[in-house]
Amino acid sequence: MVSASASSIPFEIVCKRLNQDFWGSESATDHSRYIGSYGRGSEIKGASDVDLLFRLPSSVYSRYNSYLYNGQSALLQAVRDSIRKTYSATDVGGDGQVVVVSFSDGIKFEVLPTFSNDDGSYTHPDSNNGGSWKRTDPISEVNAYNIANALYKKKVKHLARMARAWRSKNNVPMSGLLIDTLVYNFMPGWTHNSQSFMYYDWMTRDFFKYLSDRNSDQSYWSAPGSNQRVYRSGAFEYKAGQAHKAAREAIEYEGRDMPYSANEQWKKIYGSFFTG
Question: Which of 170, 248, 255, 260 has a CA that sits 20 to 30 A from residue 234's CA?
Fold first, then answer.
């Protein structure tokens, strides 16, 4: 496997290869876009998974939709074969919906082949259970997140990144999209949503109280923009309650001019991502 950086080179090389094979183009950027946490701007430093949407011509859909059995699997294989022309020594696999390109430095691209719909959403292949076509709307999610982030002075993306650090430090079973969804839902009702970064200690405290108060019987939420269902993957309320308690104690220590003790509490929440 070859080494790669998530910033530009693999993105451009993968896109150029797919454009050559499916569009007859030499462009390294056309028909492609970051989605997922990279697209929403809520990823944190050290994140290894990069989600990439690549749009294919409608004629390709017609070709594989005409297959008698699992044209979706054949389409994913065609995309894998295209990428392997460039990355022949790299692990290129799949999970039924995306083509996964794994590099030796831990960076992993998940390429979602799509076809555009008239309403701005996309259709993508799912090779599981005999094959089917699924609808997705990640661009609406990106747009909704950008609007909210601008409205609340960049705190939406900041808090989403902070929550990811908490998830990493405390092994919390939450997907990135669920984190982003709950941050998006929390911010409009937060009393200090118009304030500056000076309120981030209170934001931490109040957000984890919000998480700890969620109904543990609720199995899914609606993603911003797309309204797709975002399912929980486990219980997060108890660990959120622990984080809320640590944040309250940190704030109390700060009020008593005890910065070391305050920092120790913040580190319980954010680990090495906290640099107080």
Answer: 248
